[in-house]
């Protein structure tokens, strides 16, 4: 279909709605109208297992009554008030609890993961401005992904997302986990930015612990270390934060996604005392952090986050997630042995099953997407990352749900031509 202007007129999908990371011309668009627990319900009435936790956000299941109640109460009491030169009790309480959990003393709130990363990058540049102004560069892990704003893209590595924006992003230095001495010797690095243990967007890529060995206790003059726990935080990989299991001594930790239990947008950039102190000075010196977002520390989102943290304690969410992980060992081993599977990668409840794409008939719609379509017909909603089928279930899922996903995936591997 072509309009007079020569522009391709996309098939009707969702009217005016433009979806992220979606080719609107292809438009096999799911449409969800309800959710409960680990289940999404689409507009045809089909119930599907939310096998990606709605892209690594949902922790305690959809519509958990404790979070719903906290949100409703807070909306009635104080819906929103700016954090620009003001405060609110929920943001204060959440800052205290998050900082105690992460072992850093200060919390700066934003909304999405990428905005937490932007704040972290700017904190790092500002930190060095008075003590070593030549430190303006960033080091990233190979295959990194930290979000889609220009700064976050600049420290990311996934060409398909960033190639079109080369001219408006800045160069960062790729670190493959082996030559950190050479990086230190440069003297121009402000910070090293890492995802701890798992690179989710790279296809649940596992990073060996040794890559972080050089990022533990460092001298005062060493680059800052920014740890991105946006995908891995809140129990996804086993511990509350993936970095707990690594030899990392972060100056800054970014959290988002599961912070509110996954139900409202809220992120935080947690900072060490020396990073925070670098911004303290008499007002006339204008050293304050000139950065912020309208909805930073929104009380309703903070109330959801506080309710989520309570649930971690009350429902022993991490212990349940560990049990689910154990229940997945055998089904994932079976999948690993399937002739159409190249690799299975797992850390905690982040699982990637990489297909041997060459064993499928070549079609315009990739093998992984066709497998995902088949899974949807069988009641499971996932989103492939290139050739990798992901299973990143809500931590509250039950054993039956995750085992059923693996069985359906095995069937789909047998059925898709
Ligand atoms: C490791 C990591 N960092 C940052 C982000 C960006 O978060 P958001 O999509 O909330 O901006 C993501 C999103 O997937 C992520 O996986």
Name the average pLDDT: 94
What is the global morphology?
globular
Q: Tell me about the largest β-sheet.
A: 7 strands, mixed
CA distance, first residue to last residue: 30 Å
The structural domain count equals 2
| CATH topology (level 3) name of the largest domain | Aspartate Aminotransferase, domain 2
CATH class of the largest domain: Alpha Beta
* Residue share in helix: 25-40%
Bound molecules: pyridoxal-5'-phosphate
Pattern of helices and strands = EEEHHHEHEHHEHEEEEEEHHHEEHEEH
Structural class, by secondary structure, is alpha/beta
Gyration radius from CA atoms, angstroms = 22 Å
Number of H/I helices: 12
Give the CATH architecture of the largest domain.
3-Layer(aba) Sandwich
- Low-confidence spans: pLDDT under 50, at least 5 residues? 1-12
**Fourth CATH level, the homologous superfamily of the largest domain:** Type I PLP-dependent aspartate aminotransferase-like (Major domain)
Strands of the largest sheet, in order across it? 4-12-11-10-7-5-6
Count every beta strand, where a strand is a DSSP E run of 2 or more residues: 16
Fraction in beta strands: 15-25%
